[in-house]
């Protein structure tokens, strides 16, 4: 994809992705660890409001079985060279072997005794797993986050086109095995790359006929329209002007856009504008009129109505509530 405006980078940047490690352990089967849902995990890790804590598990040796209410009865098997990212934030359990009573991740992080932690001489035949958190900011109305599966199962080293992830995972392992000055900073940056790489690998594996924002990035017509919207969110867009920019009739453009993304072009424009507005409210000192103008609203009342429709409260109240949580 060679766009004048890199849409995927724009939306990845809007999430302010960062990462931290929770565990890098070798376990001997049978074992099981339970991980709470995103809200409880956020409280445990003292995550600020507006930030979502997303658990991930990368298997370096052996395999794990992941069970979650969203996966149904059958567990997801994650083998060496694969990772899972639980974007839905659903509580889940990772395990191996005949399932014993699980130990909570909170207990593990508190330094409690782990009965299934393997001895040094047994590590070559045991599981080696890296577990951590990706922190994503302002996910609401973010089209990338909405397009991701509840649980993303990504190859890291098994498919040639994803070798970039192999290198990232290898660098993380090296920093953990032989930490030195700056290792913490290095690992956090590498985790950002790992998350972005997993998203790109998922995008590459999507069927072209699946309606999705990520599928839209691969459509030469729709991607051009999205690039226009993202490059100039405050522009006075209409179906006609967007269609003209990609040299299609308005009816054909609108139909193609909705078939590809699952929603109409002006609905998408509205959602992206309001997503940007929520970020500006949360991250800047701009007044509400300035923000409304930045995202294409000349009328403050119209902006307030649109914001309340999606966020459930006026922009001023939304900003005040988020500020009180941050400072409380």
TrEMBL record:
Keyword Ligase applies: no
Mitochondrion recorded as keyword: no
Annotated SMART domains: HTH_ARAC
Domain annotation HTH araC/xylS-type: ranges: 223-321
Pfam families: Cupin_6, HTH_18
Species this protein is from: Acaryochloris marina (strain MBIC 11017)
Keywords: DNA-binding, Plasmid, Transcription, Transcription regulation
Domain of life: Bacteria
One MF term in the entry's GO annotations: DNA-binding transcription factor activity
Coiled coil: none
Protein name: Transcriptional regulator, AraC family
């Amino acid at each position: 994809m060679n766009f004048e405006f890199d849409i995927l980078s724009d939306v990845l940047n809007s999430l302010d992705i960062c990462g931290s490690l929770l565990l890098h352990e070798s376990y001997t089967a049978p074992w099981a660890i339970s991980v709470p849902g995103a809200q409880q995990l956020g409280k445990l890790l003292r995550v600020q409001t507006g930030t979502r804590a997303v658990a991930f598990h990368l298997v370096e040796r052996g395999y794990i079985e992941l069970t979650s209410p969203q996966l149904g009865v059958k567990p997801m098997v994650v083998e060496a060279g694969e990772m899972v990212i639980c974007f839905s934030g659903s509580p889940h359990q990772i395990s191996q072997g005949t399932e014993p009573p699980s130990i909570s991740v909170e207990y593990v992080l508190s330094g409690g005794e782990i009965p299934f932690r393997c001895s040094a001489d047994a590590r070559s035949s045991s599981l080696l797993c890296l577990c951590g958190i990706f922190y994503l900011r302002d996910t609401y109305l973010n089209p990338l986050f909405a397009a991701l599966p509840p649980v993303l199962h990504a190859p890291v080293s098994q498919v040639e086109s994803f070798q970039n992830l192999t290198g990232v995972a290898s660098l993380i392992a090296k920093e953990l095995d032989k930490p030195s000055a700056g290792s913490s900073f290095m690992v956090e940056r590498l985790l950002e790359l790992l998350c972005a790489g997993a998203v790109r690998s998922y995008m590459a594996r999507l069927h072209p006929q699946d309606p999705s924002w990520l599928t839209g990035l691969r459509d030469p017509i729709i991607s051009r329209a999205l690039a226009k919207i993202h490059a100039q969110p405050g522009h006075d867009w209409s179906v006609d002007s967007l269609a003209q920019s990609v040299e299609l009739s308005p009816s054909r453009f609108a139909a193609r856009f909705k078939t590809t993304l699952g929603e109409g072009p002006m609905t998408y424009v509205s959602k992206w504008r309001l997503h940007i507005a929520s970020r500006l409210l949360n991250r800047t000192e701009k007044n509400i009129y300035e923000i409304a103008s930045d995202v294409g609203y000349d009328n403050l009342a119209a902006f307030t109505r649109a914001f309340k429709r999606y966020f459930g409260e006026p922009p001023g109240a939304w900003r005040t509530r988020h500020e009180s949580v941050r400072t409380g």
